[in-house]
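FORM 7B: Structural annotation worksheet

SECTION A. Query
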Amino acid sequence: MGNCLVEEILKLKKERNAIILAHYYQPKEIQEIADAVGDSYYLSEVARDSKEEVVVLCGVKFMAESAKILSPQKTVLMPTKEAGCAMADMINEDGILELKEKYPNAYTVCYINSSANVKAHCDVAVTSSSALDILKNVQSEQIIFLPDKNLGGYIAEFFPEKEFILWEGYCKYHNNIKEEEILNIKEKYIDAEVLVHPECTKPIRDLGDYIGSTTGIINYATKSDKKDFIIATEEGVLHELKKKNPDKNFHIPGGTISCIDMKKTTLELLYDTLLNMKNEIIVDEEISKKALGCLENMHALAK
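SECTION B. Predicted structure
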């Protein structure tokens, strides 16, 4: 049944002139069928530059919104609109407007894990892979960073000359990783390297041999001559890690870190979406125009 469904999806994809994009945290069968797999920054580039008329974004809602904002002429679909992001929901339009009123001279930076409504009020969006490069090109001495206090705190360490005003948001999956979970694995695998996503808390980051995005973690592990790695991020990244490094061992703190929303995508939903052209992402035109500058700056300032 699985192979038949894959064949039907590929057939529909061709008929609809569609491209399928998947985040590294998606289920492995979704990553396998996708035309491109990557982190949020990479997927936003692929969606923007793709020649196809239809973009099927297998991820969470803010990613699909970003694809639509960058390519308003394209049809952007999601296999399920129920796939949201708890972190993105921790900041809304009222919250950012209140911050901007309190700090009128601050440069407003949002993590890409935020809604289109929030991006519409920000100067630039960043991803975990592009944040440091972007902030190097920002001259302002006062930075509002939202919604992730952990990523914001990590970035702030590299710019002691700047004042960072951090929103109290977080990813519950990264935020809940415990030090003892990593140390317990280290006791068993003494030479294991700890690879940490910057959405983790500072105590976890301090244990890291490497801190970086999902793409950065994959690249680091692939280049390293070590055999064992402790991966402090969502376990969907293991699929690509194991594909590129079949002879290496990867250990997840606590045994499992699985984002419920990222795992809502299924082959059945993907098939249904392409068959019926459903779950289209629509962004209000005014919001889209305002948010476009924020996302365009993300690409421009990252260079």
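SECTION C. Observations
The chain has a mean pLDDT of 96. The CA atoms of residues 41 and 127 lie 6 Å apart.

SECTION D. Sign-off
Analyst initials: ____
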